[in-house]
Amino acid sequence: MEGRYVLISVAAILLILVSCRATRPVVSPSPVSVSGSAADYINSYKDLAISEMKRTGVPASITLAQGMLESDYGRSSLARIGNNHFGIKCHNDWTGMTIRQHDDRHNECFRKYKRPEDSFYDHSDFLRSTTRYSFLFDLDPANYKAWAHGLKKAGYATNPDYATLLITKVEENNLSAYDRGYSGSVAKRMEKVQAENRPAAAKQQPVTSQPAAEESVTFGAVMARVPRIMENNKIQYIVVKDGDTREKIENEFQLLRWELPRYNEMTDSFSLTPGQILYLQPKRDKAEAGNEFHTAAEGETMYSISQKYGIKLGSLLEMNRMIKGSEPVPGQQIWLQNVKPVN
User: In CATH, which of 1.25.40.80, 3.30.70.270, 2.60.120.560, 1.10.530.10 is domain 38-179?
Assistant: First the structure.
């Protein structure tokens, strides 16, 4: 009898243990929801694509079409693991996170981002700041076909049908609807609005020189989301005004923490001064056409000249055969497009 009670007790204990194990919740990582639906992808990223179009001039239809094509509607491993929706490779100037994938060659280096949004920002800046894509921004922003063929011509992808694939994505999903109401680059829109408002202003009062800050306020009533952005050397920039802080500017223009110091070649602990030029995109290796030389004035530095013309300081020093830390003397001719000849 005693043995039977022992067996019953053991069985009861085992039953309790099994019962407890069955009801215990199983903790596991939540799977990434990837539907692969074009509609879901568009709904998730259309507002971001439109915002980037207003910020940089890349048509929203092209951004969405490239994202859908390159990321397979967000299903590719590069998109899921690396948040890279545009297949942008590391290149020499990339200092962020990386991920390895097989592409044209085995185990190639691709950029990796913390969030998908960062991929969209970098895609816009990559097109805007890379020399071989600069001609795209002279195209009609509503002409998605010209943009698609231009991207293929510039070598964005090796697929010979890349332009056709992009155009098909735009037309199948009516992505061109997201380009409507956008009339071109920020600089062109500024010129248009200023031209439209100049006659009325002239009738009200004599034409006088106005401070830049007042002009930006007047213009802001018309331009709404991009009242302060101007262009120099095909690079977007703003002028710091009273009350600006680093955090305020980063939030207003959706910039990552590293972007302002890197684009403007400053330390991470930089301070702002009213009237200071702040580039929102990387500077270029030389000045735009028409600016071949600069005559240094009293108090100017190579850095201030590099900011004035939107040229990387290192490139400016190399063109003028100067070493780091060298400064110009008043009246010195500074070369802005070509390397200074050896005397």
Answer: 1.10.530.10
Mean pLDDT throughout 304-318?
Answer: 94
Which CATH architecture does the domain made up of 186-279 adopt?
Roll (3.10)
What tokens were used for 140?
């009609």
Structure tokens at 193: 């609005």
Q: How far apart are CA 274 and CA 10, in angstroms?
A: 81
Q: Collapsing DSSP states into helix, strand and coil, what is residue 109?
A: strand
CA distance 301 to 308: 11
Domains 38-179 and 186-279 share a fold: no
Residues 247, 271 contacting (CB under 8 angstroms): no
> At a CB cut-off of 8 Å and minimum separation 6, what does 184 contact?
57, 140, 141
Q: What is the largest CA-CA distance in the chain?
A: 115
Q: pTM for the complete prediction?
A: 0.47
pLDDT at residue 45, as a whole number: 92
Using pLDDT thresholds of 50, 70 and 90, give the confidence band for residue 187.
Answer: very low
User: What does the alpha-carbon distance between residue 41 and residue 73 come to, in Å, rounded to a whole number?
Assistant: 6
Domain 293-335 is found in CATH 3.10.350.10: yes
Residues 279-297: tens digit of each pLDDT = 999 999 999 888 899 999 9
Cβ-based neighbour number of residue 129 at 10 Å: 20
